[in-house]
Specification:
Rossmann fold, alpha/beta, 6-stranded mixed sheet, 41% helix
């Protein structure tokens, strides 16, 4: 069972964009993660940015089986994620498209997966594991398409590790 650490607003922005009142977006996001957690059984921690509108201290809560962390006022979620991966012996799978955070996590022996690669796992549960990928046409109809084969050369060790970890999610 993996422990997934998510850069929350980074993933939300890649999924649906961030605009207006953030509370409904956060609630939808947590519900979606809870559905995913109940299907897969992974432990999930999400870190929200409280840099501009948070509390004086870091806030922790558990909702629908998801561990939620709000960074304190003036602190970025990136800093909290770095502190978590640096300070714990547990291995994390970090979901972020922030290259600095991903590089930091990998330096400390964790696996970083870009948000764009994790989104299909959230939307379709096991989508993509069978070699099939879901796609939408111009009218919004979902279709299945065969994944194209990539470069025949062997990927780097880090890329193979990232793929293996993503396949387990």
């Amino acid at each position: 069972m993996a422990h997934i650490l998510i850069d929350a607003y980074n993933l939300i922005a890649k999924m649906e964009g961030i605009s207006g009142n953030l509370e409904p977006q956060r609630e939808r996001f947590i519900r979606k993660l809870s559905e995913y957690r109940s299907q897969k059984g992974h432990m999930i921690t999400v870190v929200f940015d409280g840099e501009k509108g948070g509390w004086a201290t870091e806030s922790h809560e558990r909702t629908l089986g998801i561990n939620i962390v709000f960074s304190r006022l003036g602190e970025k979620a990136d800093d909290v994620i770095k502190r978590i991966v640096k300070g714990h012996g547990e291995e994390y799978t970090v979901i972020t498209s922030d290259k600095e955070v991903a590089s930091f996590a990998e330096t400390w022996g964790h696996t970083a997966i870009p948000s764009e690669e994790f989104i299909p796992k959230l939307r379709y549960g096991r989508g993509g594991e069978s070699g099939m990928e879901r796609d939408e046409d111009a009218e919004g109809n979902q279709t299945l398409a065969t994944k194209k084969r990539g470069n025949p050369r062997k990927p780097s060790k880090a890329a193979r590790r990232r793929k293996q970890r993503l396949d387990r999610l």
